[in-house]
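Hi P.,

Sorry for the delay on this. The queue was packed all week, but I finally got your sequence through. Input first:
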Amino acid sequence: MPSSHHHRHLVLFMLILLVTVAFSAVAAVGGEQDAACDAEYRQEDLRPDRLTVLLSGYSERRLPLLRAIAGAYAAHPLVLSVLVLWCNPSTPDDRLRLPRFPPRVSLHRTASDSLNSRFLPHPSIRTAAVAVADDDVLPDAAAISFAFAAWQQQQRPGSLVGFFPRSHRLDLARGGWAYAAPQPGRYSMVLTKFMVLGVDLLRRYSCSPELAAARAVVDRERNCEDILMNFVAAEESGEGPVLVEAGSVRDWGDPRNDANAGAGAAAEMKAVGLSSTGGVGHLEKRGECITEFHRLLGRMPLRYSYGKLVEAAVGEQGLCSKGGRLVRCDRE
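Then the structure:
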C-alpha cells in the first residue's frame, strides 16, 4: 500500500494540476476577450439592413437540432450570417465538422464554457444588430422580421428587443432583489432565448473594465449572463426593453412540453437545453445575481416597460409539443 507520504505528494500534485488547468482556462478566456475587444471597429462599416445571429451550443446530443435551427436562421432573407458559438471545449473537432453546417453558417469554438462568450464582439460581425439566441428556440420568419424591425425603429442606443419577458422586484424578507415572472403589463428584462440588440452592447458588456467583477459572477454561478446584459442595456438606454409578439416561436426547452415524451428524444432535448428551467433554486440564484450586480455597480439601472408591440397573437411562451401537436405552451 502507498505510504501516507506518497499519498500527500499525490494530493499535492493533483491540486497543482487543477490550479494549472484553472489558470490556463482563465488565460484562454482573457486572450479571446482581449482579441475581440482590440479588433478594429467602426459603426459606419456595419450594415444596418441585415442581422447577424449568434447561436450558442454546448451539448453534442443537440447537434442535429442546432444544425437545423442554424440553417433556418441562415435561410431568412434579413440574416446576413449565423455564427455558432460552440462552448464545449471537450468536443472533438471531427464531431463538429461532419455533417457540415449549412451555407452562411460559421462555427467558432470559444476558449471555454463561459457564458460570457455569448456576448463577445466577434470581428466577423458585419451588421449593426445581432440576435443572441438559445439552441432550443426558433422564431418563424415573420417573428424574426418583426423583432428586427422593432429594433430598427428604436431611436435610443442600448435598445433590447425580445419575445420572452421577465421582471425583478424587491424581496423585503431576504433584503435583496427577486427574479420574477412579468407582472400583468409590466416587465424589466427579456431573455436570451431570442433577443435583438446593437453590436455596441456586445462591446460594452465584454470590454468594460467596470463590468469585470459582474462578469466574474456569471462565471462563478454559470448563470445570469442575460440578466447582466439587461443591466448593461438599461444603463445605456435609461429605459426598459421592448417586448414584441409576432408570428410563432418554437420552444423545445420549455418545461411545459408534452410530459409523455419523458422517455424519448423530446425530454432529452429539454434536459440539456440552454434555456431549460432549473426550478426554485434556479430562480433564487437569479435573484441573488440581481442583488450582486446591483451591489457591484452601486446602482440599479433596470427599468420597467409596459405593453408590447404586437403583430399577431401568439403567447410569449412559444409553441410546445402536446399530444403530438404544437400548441401554445400556456394552453391547458
